[in-house]
Amino acid sequence: MIGACHADDLGYLFKNIMTPELKSGSLESKSVRRFVKLWTNFAKYENPTPDEKELGIIWQPVTEETVNFIDIGEELTADVNPESERMALWREIYQLNPDTAQFL
């Protein structure tokens, strides 16, 4: 499977004996710096991108209709509704079984 799993971000935020050394200027190093900046901005301002000039992007909040997200790759890119087919399945399950709302 591609993508991140639960708690994969902890190695970026907190160094430990399993954390590899990153080459200065590498894509990995740049990605970790951006990731940490998003988290610290969120902790400080309740907004991971309070100033578009800082990271070159604004991360819009999630709404009932739209899941806004940022892809942290070679560049930061904003997009909407990841895994839309999977989410449609969950919406359909909920609509067929409204009592499952307690689990959402």
Task: Write a brief structural summary.
Helices cover 38% and strands 10% of the residues.
Explain what this protein looks like in three dimensions:
The chain is of the alpha+beta class and 104 residues long. The protein has one domain (10-103). Helix content is 38%, strand content 10%. The protein has helices spanning 10-13, 27-45, 52-55, 84-96; strands spanning 68-72, 76-80. A two-stranded antiparallel sheet has the order 1-2.
Topology:
Elements: H1 10-13, H2 27-45, H3 52-55, E1 68-72, E2 76-80, H4 84-96
Antiparallel strand pairs: 1-2
Observed structural traits:
104 residues, alpha+beta, 38% helix
Approximate helicity band: 25-40%
Number of helices: 4
Q: In whole angstroms, how far apart are the ends? A: 24 Å
Order of helices and strands: HHHEEH
Radius of gyration: 17 Å
Question: Unreliable runs, pLDDT <50, ≥5 residues?
Answer: none
Most strands sheet: 2 strands, antiparallel
Q: What's the shape?
A: globular
Q: Count the E strands.
A: 2
Q: Average the pLDDT over all residues and give the rounded result.
A: 87
Q: List the domain count as a whole number.
A: 1
Provide the spatial order of strands within the biggest beta sheet. 1-2
User: How large a portion of the residues is in β-strands, by DSSP E?
Assistant: 5-15%
Q: Which structural category fits the helices and strands?
A: alpha+beta
Pfam families: COesterase
Domain Carboxylesterase type B: 2-90
GO molecular function, one term: carboxylic ester hydrolase activity
Family: Belongs to the type-B carboxylesterase/lipase family.
